[in-house]
């Protein structure tokens, strides 16, 4: 019961945060013959300090998945250079599906966050949604386009 109330409260708060829209992607068809396949959500932390990230995925207004992750700050590595840490969310409820989702991301238990609703006509055939943390703020949405021909990431999607 408490989790449901928290989900409702977070959804209401994030709904007030406003919507972000995407510009058209050159590889996205105007009217896709088949709906795009959703893989995952990721949040990359480009700050030096760690952050707590909440990722809520909604389908038709209902919470499908809710995850809270602690993301370490970036660090310097002698061999690799700058290492940026991320929170990757691959829940089976959403991974490799063609349903339409709204993704809500909240940083450090703030009272508001970012809401990403991604129109199907602005996505490639196989995609992931992301955000970046820069200077203590969320930046996004970042849409990652996957080449299904190479790795079969989005084969046999569920509807």
What descriptive keywords fit this protein?
159 residues, Immunoglobulin-like, 4-stranded mixed beta sheet, 2 helices
Describe the structure.
This is Lipoprotein. The chain is mainly beta and 159 residues long. It has a single domain (2-151), classed as Immunoglobulin-like. Helix content is 12%, strand content 43%. It contains two helices and eleven strands, in the order αβββββββββββα. The protein has helices at residues 2-16, 148-151, and strands spanning 19-20, 37-45, 51-59, 62-71, 75-77, 81-83, 85-89, 102-107, 114-117, 126-134, 137-145. The strands form three sheets. Strands 1-9-8-3-4 form a five-stranded mixed beta sheet, with helices on one face. A four-stranded mixed beta sheet has the order 7-2-10-11, with no helix packed on it. A hairpin with a 2-residue loop joins strand 3 and strand 4 (62-71). The longest helix has 15 residues, at 2-16. Mean pLDDT is 78; it is low at 1-31.
Find the structural class using helix and strand composition: mainly beta
Topology as a string of helices (H) and strands (E): HEEEEEEEEEEEH
SS element count, helices: 2
Number of domains: 1
Low-confidence stretches: 1-31
- Specify the helix fraction band: 10-25%
Sheet with the most strands? Answer: 5 strands, mixed
Rg on CA atoms, Å: 16 Å
Q: Strand order within the widest sheet?
A: 1-9-8-3-4
Short précis:
This protein is mainly beta. It is built from 2 helices and 11 strands.
Secondary-structure blueprint of this entry?
Layout: H1 2-16, E1 19-20, E2 37-45, E3 51-59, E4 62-71, E5 75-77, E6 81-83, E7 85-89, E8 102-107, E9 114-117, E10 126-134, E11 137-145, H2 148-151
Parallel strand pairs: 1-9, 2-10
Antiparallel strand pairs: 2-7, 3-4, 3-8, 5-6, 8-9, 10-11
């Amino acid at each position: 019961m408490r989790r449901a109330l928290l989900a409702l409260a977070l959804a209401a708060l994030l709904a007030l945060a406003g919507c972000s829209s995407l510009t058209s992607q050159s590889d996205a068809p105007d009217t896709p013959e088949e709906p795009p396949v959703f893989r995952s959500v990721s949040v990359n932390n480009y700050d030096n300090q760690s952050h707590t990230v909440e990722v809520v995925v909604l389908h038709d207004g209902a919470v499908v998945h809710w995850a809270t992750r602690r993301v370490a700050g970036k660090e310097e590595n002698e061999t690799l250079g700058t290492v940026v840490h991320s929170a990757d969310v691959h829940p089976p409820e959403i991974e490799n599906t063609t349903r339409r989702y709204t993704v809500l991301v909240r940083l450090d238990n703030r009272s508001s966050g970012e809401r990403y609703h991604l129109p199907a006509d602005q996505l490639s055939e196989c995609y992931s949604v992301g955000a970046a943390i820069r200077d203590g703020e969320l930046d996004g949405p970042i849409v990652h386009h996957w080449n299904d021909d190479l790795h079969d990431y989005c084969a046999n999607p569920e509807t």
